Amino acid sequence: MLKRKNLSLIMLTCFGMGYFLAMSSLPINPFLKSQAALIPFQLSILIYFSYMRWHRHKEFN
Description:
Structural class: mainly alpha
Oligomer: single chain
Strand content: under 5%
Shape: flat
Helix content: over 70%
Number of helices: 2
Number of strands: 0
Largest sheet: none
Distance between the termini: 32 Å
Number of domains: 1
């Protein structure tokens, strides 16, 4: 279990570094750049809440 957690942490760290590098090198408006940087957080929160709602709804049936 600990190895799987470490592997996931390493993969997420690499993804985050790559995403930061890609976002910092884009030649776009700073406002759009800040909005684009928040999209992964917004999507992950949306997926999390959708999953929790679906899972809770499944328990009550």
